[in-house]
Amino acid sequence: MKRISSFRRHRIAGPILVVAALFTIATAFGVASALPSAQMTVASGTSTLVSQGKELFLRGCSSCHGLHAEGGGIAPSLIGVGSAAVDFQVGTGRMPMADMSQQAMQKKPLYNPQETAALAAYVASLAPGPAAVTNESLNYERDGNAANGGTLFRTNCAMCHNFAGQGGALTNGKYAPSLMGVDPKYIYEAMVTGPQSMPKFTNATITPQEKLDIIKWIQSADHEQNLGGASLGRVGPVTEGLLGWVLGLGLLIGAAAWLAMKAK
Amino acid sequence: MSNQIERFQDPGLPEHVHRNADVDPRAAKRAEQQVAILFLLSAAGTVLTIASYIYVKSSTFVYLPVMGRTNLQQLLLGIGLTAATLFIGLGAIQWAKKLMPDEEVIAERHEFRSEEVDREELVSTFKERADASGIGRRSLIKRTLGVALGLVGLSPLVLLRDTGPMPGEYLNKTDWATGTRLLRDPDGQPILASDIEVGAVTQVLPELPAGVERTLENTGKDAVLLLRLRPEDFNLDPERLSWTHEGIIAFSKICTHMGCAVALYEQQTHHLLCPCHQSTFDVTRAAKVIFGPAARPLPQLAITVDADGHLIAKQPFTVPVGPSFWERNSSNG
Fold first, then answer.
1. Window B:63-102, CB contacts with A under 8 Å
2. A70 and A77 in contact (C-beta within 8 Å)?
3. Which residue has the higher pLDDT, A33 or B108?
4. With respect to CATH, is domain A41-132 assigned 1.10.760.10?
């Protein structure tokens, strides 16, 4: 007893007690705040897709997009954007945004496909808009014409996404992403909804058949093999020039220095 | 005595330092082997080139980190040819630096002026031959030669005409006229105003009169970008607003700086960006330049609809499209 009470009066007893108390509080808070997220998983079968979506929307999206998806100061209205926009934005992980940077970036999706479908169904129920598609419904392999797709791509897409679909810079840190390795359905949905900086390419501007042509061309560009050596990113004279000036000239300068050096 | 500066002595050339290979036979042998190895590497490169041409199928692709899927034959041909030529050069340099003579040699220069006898002989020979040619006596030859030589200089002067003719009105005018239908690029279909949604962008070319073929030169002047915004987003003067149709607005796609196609449209900011030099145009303010080197806004095309609801041009462009040129008609800006 005497030993304990002497420890209690020790100089470091106070700080240790404070650290221990803080640790306990933090752990308890962490457990407590983790509990609601465990309850967030969708209880399938108990309610319809739309009401599930509404619930998810109120929890995850309404702080920016408004309680009725009417939009706000920092986020656009989602009334009439259709399920295609939700499937694209949420399915590619662009929404919810990680931070208010120049543009929403592609990342690991936060919602699973079922939750994404529920959100899409809710937003689609607000007002009619372009409908989400699936990879299976786009039979571009059979119906697409890559040659025509290439012509359409160069006329409508190449100015931002680069002539080989590698993406490119816009203003103020915004950019058009690369189209390599993108699911066909997301390419289709991006065209009909015009996400973020991208303009809309409605069925009047580019018909559904022409959209399949474009997708087929992008897929064939994606699987393009390098016939003549390294592609250097297929971004044209930038990397080619950089390599030529740095590596090519560097080698020449090195050779010149070697030639002029006195042999030992 | 103390003021006298000590004269600096010219130290002359430093003593010649011999290379290892000059003094040590073993080093010389080593250098010889190095040169031989470089030449053998070149030979191996040639063998690789020929072997990969004969034995590697041109349809074989391999995956390489960084490079991606690459044609094996082309890759080996490149490596082989590089080695074959590069190592000959490297071997020759190594040979010259390590083994070829390395002694300083003084070569005395002779006087530039020729010997007096040679000079006199040249003059007398020239005079003798000129006399023999009879150019002094045969004045007909002398004069016609003068005419021929004088005229030769004229032909390059006449060929300078190829820098013309002046463009005349060609660059001031486009194929857009009052009532010209807007056609969708590339399929050439007329455009219903009701088909264009807010936030949509369409690439447009003018409908040409029957029998007139579309040329690349004309497309370079005629290309137009059609956009639809919410009408309340516009910040236009009444005249320019009357050139739009229910939020649909059309601009020349040719940048007023250097003539690149301005078609990077950011539908949230309503900015048009030129990919060449980053000139940025604000669509809501009649394509006013808000960034970059362009000096003038993109020319706006006045549009309206015909009886069928198809978009047509209300009038031709009021200013020449594209970059500045000397003869540009700048009366309207």
1. 66-71, 74-75, 78, 93, 97-98, 102
2. yes
3. B108
4. yes
